[in-house]
Write the structure tokens for this entry.
Amino acid sequence: MPEGPEIHIEADIIRKAIGGTSCRYIHFFHEHLKPFEKALSDTKVETVEAYGKGLVIGFEGDTYIYSHNQLYGKWYITQAGEYPRTSRSLRLEIQNEHMSALLYSASEIEVLQADSITRHPYLSTIGPDVIRCENTQLVLRQLRSDLFRNRSFSALLLDQRFLAGVGNYLRSEILHHAGVHPLTKPALLSEQQLTKIAESALLISQRAYLNNGITNEDALVARAKKAGLTRRDYRHLVFGREQKPCYQCGGIIEKDRMGGRRIYICNICQKE
Ligand SMILES: [Zn+2]
């Protein structure tokens, strides 16, 4: 499933294609959304924003299309009226004079008004968005909250109510960068350690957003490329690198399962 960085990158691409222009043609696959086709035609697309793993396209007149890709949803951008070769099924099409934004196979598409956004089961319950946060203040508030402070990081970092946009690869990467073991809880950490994990959560997520999914720092990536390593080798600190040496300490990275999802740990950098 795409995580926050990927959804924010997707929002940027969709915004570039159809943002600020009038929608010439709109098509919904779902019968119950068909009535909105007429209402949204010839209406300007004002905003395209990611919220955690959800995407919201705002139209003139305070009408919004919310979508969540879940496992299979995928956006394509094409020249107006053209379609990609894919076996996926088209769920939503928004076309302006020049471009089409096409959403395939997403299971969640809704049309909302401004007031229903504030009651929306996903949008109204998610925590601070890690790509959007400008400082660690909101993240520290979550870490100190009674709601979260006694749960393990392995569970917290998959809970969108804790931090929106963090998913499975970011969970392993943030914890390794902060030097925190996934079974530790916020309540067991010092203020200094809490600050470190809050900083890592933002730094790693925002780096992935700016560097197309890469979570390692630029200098390491440059060295790795020079040495002939592939993206698979240098993309992440630990995720997907089981039995390979940790870039920081040389220890062997181990793969485990927590919360039903794979997780990667360096037991030297991340002591329990
Ligand atoms: Zn290590």
Observations:
- The mean pLDDT is 96.
- Residues 246, 248-249, 251, 266, 268-269 surround zinc ion (CB under 6 Å).
